[in-house]
Amino acid sequence: xxxxxxxxxxxxxxxxxxxxxxxxxxxxxxxxxxxxxxxxxxxxxxxxxxxxxxxxxxxxxxxxxxxxxxxxxxxxxxxxxxxxxxxxxxxxxxxxxxxxxxxxxxxxxxxxxxxxxxxxxxxxxxxxxxxxxxxxxxxxxxxxxxxxxxxxxxxxxxxxxxxxxxxxxxxxxxxxxxxxxxxxxxxxxxxxxxxxxxxxxxxxxxxxxxxxxxxxxxxxxxxxxxxxxxxxxxxxxxxxxxxxxxxxxxxxxxxxxxxxxxxxxxxxxxxxxxxxxxxxxxxxxxxxxxxxxxxxxxxxxxxxxxxxxxxxxxxxxxxxxxxxxxxxxxxxxxxxxxxxxxxxxxxxxxxxxxxxxxxxxxxxxxxxxxxxxxxxxxxxxxxxxxxxxxxxxxxxxxxxxxxxxxxxxxxxxxxxxxxxxxxxxxxxxxxxxxxxxxxxxxxxxxxxxxxxxxxxxxxxxxxxxxxxxxxxxxxxxxxxxxxxxxxxxxxxxxxxxxxxxxxxxxxxxxxxxxxxxxxxxxxxxxxxxxxxxxxxxxxxxxxxxxxxxxxxxxxxxxxxxxxxxxxxxxxxxxxxxxxxxxxxxxxxxxxxxxxxxxxxxxxxxxxxxxxxxxxxxxxxxxxxxxxxxxxxxxxxxxxxxxxxxxxxxxxxxxxxxxxxxxxxxxxxxxxxxxxxxxxxxxxxxxxx
Length: 688
Fold this sequence. Notes:
mainly beta; 6-stranded antiparallel β-sheet
């Protein structure tokens, strides 16, 4: 009599081949033999990957392109297409055009960029409001500022205050004498609150100051950008603060100079070609690391003044700070991450940088320390921050680690997230990745050979699942930005069309199962809506074999003409045309005890299987990924009345023979939704 077993979840994703016999391992029970073009959901179920929408060819298809996100807020986000010396802007899934009244009205906005295509892979960036700061060893630090959807401006980061030092300060004495007094004056920016460098010293000879007749008055030229000026008087070689004025004059009545508060001193840590490699915003400072001349040094700006690295004597808590990680081997700082502490990822180790009291202590010039957390270096792929956890790619590019705070060590420790799926990284490295929190907490990972991997990552529910994806082409870049209640995923995909290499910008479609006519499970596709549509134009797929979904009915055997025209054998109101996707899923097998011991090694057969489905239509099931052994999941679509997606239990007899595995295989060849929550096979085991 058959025994019913259940695999209630696929939360471990695809497991490496040498794990297939590890039935003692707790992740085996929720693992998969194969997961191709499937995504593991946050709840542990598996759903076939949506297709992609064609947006536009890259501006310069002959050079590599990198997508970068710009997110001002959830309602105002862009994907930036960086290429050879330029970038373009995507907003609401379309290229931004120059607005009405502009000299280039209606044209696509193309903004010059200082970066060559060959350098984009190692470009680091940090956004703060409407500004993105960029670093790269081969370039002086740059700032990109958004002024409008179509108006983006570059400037070189000069690392000086936003307001200039006062010029033309004069001093006059009220009483003659032989005592020389020296003063300097600084200005405060009314918008940023930054203090300028001091003016040139101004000297005056006076009687010894007192509060009555012997005073000195300073006259300060008006500055519309300043909301006040601070005045410092020289005392034993130091200029100490004596007061502040919001007018154009200041009178010194023998005010005691506070030499614990001195004017800023110029410090330019990135002069002489010391271009920083990494950056992060942390504790109201901009922090840079990995300078060309000082690869192991960290430089923190003044508090609240991200381009200001000036200091004072003696140093104050809000001054800029500098710290050198150099111990033993000198490794460049490739990334800086702002978590509860500042994390520095070097080429050979991971460091936690804090104030002297520990991870909760703010870093300052007077309080800074660094602890090496491990000796695993990082690649140049930017790490991802998910909540209070950071994920990074190890230096060799094939291993993914996470970093989580541990109270026991007051520091960060982590786990290898790719070890159970290391076969997916063989002979390839991670090129780029991006995190889409909604709907299923998925990391989209572009590999060096053009393959695409996904990591479903939800530690609190023990979902750590890798799957692999392919398309008729190669994935080259990825980024994510908010899109309402989901995160939109953008790709650059290199495809061959009419024998010519092309680079396209495409967007992952939303997963829609109802109504079935609006399902989107074709790649590089376009949708057309109207009345009695009998032909459509897809010039970007000229000469390609394509598939259509016409009012929810699958139409195969189509080829786009040399001009991209696709003639449909039937007319429809909603037509989707694109490249087909085939999705495969296969379990590891069954494991239970029999009267004569474990079922492992015994011949088993699965006469039937119960599939717990959610919003699914179509698909095939069998004991192996072999079309000859797969049975179509019914009911079949009815002509002119497509069946809507099904949710519930579906039982199917199998055409399998005897094997030593007892696997269940699923294939979805049609551009239709398929989501499997659990598989319940009936298993018969031989007595031998």
